[in-house]
Amino acid sequence: MEIVVVGARGFGQVHLNAISGVDVSIVERDRAVAEEIRSKYGVRKVYSSFEEALNSDAEMIDLVVPHNLHREFAVKALRRGKHVLVEKPIATTVREGEEMIAEAKRARKVLMVAEQYYFDTTVRYVMEQIRAGTVGTPKFILVRDQRLFTRTGWRLFRSQMGGGALIDGGIHYVDTMLNFGGDYTYVSARSMNVAGIIEGEDTTVANLQFANGSYGTLLYLWSYRDPPTLPAFEVIGTEGSIYEDPSTRKQGDFRSGRNYVYGDPVVNGKKVALEHADVFRAEMEAFFRAVREGTEPEMKPEVALRDLRCVLDIYRHAGVA
After folding, report:
1. Pairing state between β 233-237 and 241-244
2. Three-state SS at 88
3. I need a surface site. Which of 162, 255, 291, 300 has the fewest CB within 10 A?
4. CA distance linking residue 160 with residue 200, whole number of Å
5. What is the chain's alpha carbon radius of gyration, rounded to the nearest angstrom?
């Protein structure tokens, strides 16, 4: 099998580093850049355009492109009989995401969103503990991440992002919040632009009420200079608590092959040492497994659409839609 990575100059190289067991090709017009990537990652073919890749015999397309191109590129690939892996968010609107899912079903092809946080070992463990009643009945969930955005490129522009910080990096933490809390019934939120680096919002505080009666608070910032290291999540229940030990966290070294999101959980006061899997390799393996077996992907596109819908609900309540 062959997978074509579209967008291999930036974060696409994280995908290239995580791919194994299949032939790998890229789309790249610049010959010097193409040769550098080819030698580093063992790339088999270099296509000069997306259209050339669609005309090839490659079975899979991996889209690492700006958010506003997700729907267009994914639908084109699905209609040409390709399985599609697309970076989060699934799209910039719910309608676009629904169109992508409907097209995948019509084509009988796998559509999966590359949401690596979904595959994090700590997230899976905490979900199991919540279901098992280890902390009793969950009453409050806090999920947060604070940092300063210092990069350049298309993420500076609202038109390509479909928003700002929340729809990009923040959607990871929305996924974690919803995996812990379940369906929500109410959202209130406030978003603002503090640092003035990007066009969209860089700071959001959202409160969610869940169908099970618990509450959640999401805090996501791209405007925090010299932030403290704090637990990224806390789950408080009637009989205990679970929170992340951030000192055991390992993220940011994207090409190490040992990248995971959250540190070990502290369950009812006792740290649990977990054997962590690399989240990028886990998501790639899940995609390839679904393609080979002809099954739904472990990270169903409907879950990614759930995450997007929550982000857009937060935007609407915050008055930035």
Report:
1. antiparallel
2. coil
3. 255
4. 10
5. 20
**Averaged pLDDT for residues 113-125:** 97
CATH superfamily of 117-282+307-318: Dihydrodipicolinate Reductase; domain 2 (3.30.360.10)
Q: What percent of the chain has pLDDT over 70?
A: 97
Mean pLDDT across 283-296:
97
Boundaries of CATH 3.30.360.10 in the chain? 117-282+307-318
- What does the pLDDT read at residue 152? 87
CATH class of 2-110: alpha beta
The model carries a pTM of 0.95
CA–CA gap between residue 22 and residue 299 (Å, rounded): 20
CA nearest to 173, candidates 219, 230, 131: 219
Cβ-contact 245, 231 below 8 angstroms: yes
Name the nearest CA neighbour of 304 among 78, 20, 70, 4: 70
> Cα separation of 33 and 35, whole Å?
6
What is d(CA 198, CA 23) in angstroms, rounded to the nearest whole number?
37
DSSP conformation class of 119: G
Instruction: Find the helix or strand (DSSP H, E) in which 133 lies.
Output: none
